Amino acid sequence: MPIDYSKWKDIEVSDDEDDLSPHFEKNAFFEMRHRERINRMEEEKQYDDMIEEKYKSVSMELEKLKEQQQQDGSCETEEEMKRNKEKVEELQFELKELQLCKEEIAERQRKAKWNVDTISRPGFERTCISTASSGEVEVDFNEAENDALFNFSLMHEFDDSMRILMRYPRLCDQRALKFLTNQMVVSGVNGMNKLAEDIAHQRVLLSCLLHNAKMKNAHPKDRSYIAEFFTCLKEC
């Protein structure tokens, strides 16, 4: 297979040496430039983390509101139903805006030039093989479970993941694992490496839960098993 060298063409290499006066303190100048680049990278990371946390927060709030609507059902007054519907639409709109921000971040990261501070940084550290034959994977879950699975794919904390699986134990299934695999591959192909890595983390987590259940001859959808699995995981 021919090697693609195109990704090396945008490495950020300074050529300021030729522009400097021989009387200028080069080390101080390069240190200043390096510090400016580090500060810029830190600001970008703070923004990226803020968008990620906001997306996670809005996703969880939307999930809780939908679950509350399902539980309340016909007990709600017409005014409450209208207010909750408006709130759901508001959260869904905010989620779409945040998703656009995440895509812009992924595009910026994809186009960012490599430099001395990033060229040796590990990227995607896991290798996963997709068995999907097309871009879509059919998952036989209801709407609430599909939303929960999507939210699960974005979680970072064990407690958040456990809360979703305890609420929707049917997600402890090979179908959910295939869905995560597909989403991970699609995100990676589209250059959204950070998102692909987050989904891969959750895929490994769910895979371990299913494998451990098989080893213990336990039912993966049993809430007591799910709670025990995460308890052991946090104690490791």
Automatic annotation (TrEMBL):
Residues 2-127 form the Cdc37 N-terminal domain. SMART domains: CDC37_N. Residues 48-108 form a coiled coil. InterPro entries: Cdc37 (IPR004918), Cdc37_Hsp90-bd_sf (IPR038189), Cdc37_N_dom (IPR013855). One of its GO terms (molecular function) is protein kinase binding. One of its GO terms (cellular component) is cytoplasm. It comes from Trichinella nativa. SUPFAM superfamilies: Hsp90 co-chaperone CDC37. Keywords: Coiled coil. This is Cdc37 family protein. It comes from the Eukaryota. Transmembrane segments: none annotated. GO terms for biological process: protein folding; protein stabilization.
